[in-house]
Amino acid sequence: MKICRYILFFIGAFLINITIARGQGQDSSRYISENDTTVGIPITKVEFDNKVSNYIKQMSDWAKFTPSDYVEMVRIFNTIGDSHLIKIDYYRMYYHVFMVMYIKIAGKTLDTKMMKGLSLYSKKYNLWIGDRPFGNNNSEFRINKNN
Questions:
Q1: Count of CB atoms situated within 10 Å of the CB of 125
Q2: Which pLDDT does position 88 carry in this prediction?
Q3: What is the pLDDT of residue 56?
Q4: Which of 12, 53, 55, 74 is deepest in the core (most CB within 10 A)?
Q5: Is 19 contained in some domain?
Q6: How far is CA 77 from its chain centroid?
Q7: Is 8 a member of any domain?
């Protein structure tokens, strides 16, 4: 049991370092927004926050999810990871909890395969988990800044 705690601690520390390192370069979300191009499924800020809140609560209870839930959860994960939202504790908590507790289960449920760049791809759902090709509209949300 003690060994498991140490392993989870080191995984968490590793993931935090990856997140910090990713924030130092130019990611595609910032590049896209600066060029006024839109990528992702449109969603309001309120709807996005409601989804994040709902899934954080369910994940904290170790809930079982349907494939459609995992699709939504992956889109949230990708949206947070590729934007300025990762700097906000609330969203970073979702990102890390999903990565540590659910990403493997989601990948298996969605029948993903390992692709270039160590990202996962589900052909069945046309969904990327993690790094994805430029312009893939199905793998993340586009938050409407006006709402």
A1: 18
A2: 92
A3: 95
A4: 74
A5: no
A6: 1
A7: no
Please check whether residue 12 is in contact with residue 96, taking contact to mean a CB–CB distance below 8 angstroms: yes
- Tell me, yes or no, whether 4 lies in a domain: no
Q: Which residues form the domain of 36?
A: 26-144
Residue 129, beta-bridge partner list: 120
Computed on alpha carbons and rounded to an integer, the radius of gyration of the chain in Å comes to 15
CA dist., res. 145 & res. 35, Å (int): 16
Note the pLDDT of residue 110: 97
Burial readout 28-67 (b: 16 or more C-beta within 10 A, e: otherwise)? bbeebeeeeeebbeebeeeebeebbeebbeebeeeeebee
Reading the chain (147 residues) residue by residue, the pLDDT tens digits are 666 565 665 566 666 555 444 443 334 443 444 334 467 899 999 999 999 999 999 999 999 999 999 999 999 999 998 888 989 999 999 999 999 999 999 999 999 999 877 789 999 999 999 877 766 788 999 998 775
What angle is formed at CA 110 by the lines to CA 60 and CA 84, rounded to 5 degrees? 60
Is residue 11 a part of any domain in this protein?
A: no
Q: Is-contact 83 29, C-beta < 8 A?
A: yes
Counted domains in the chain: 1
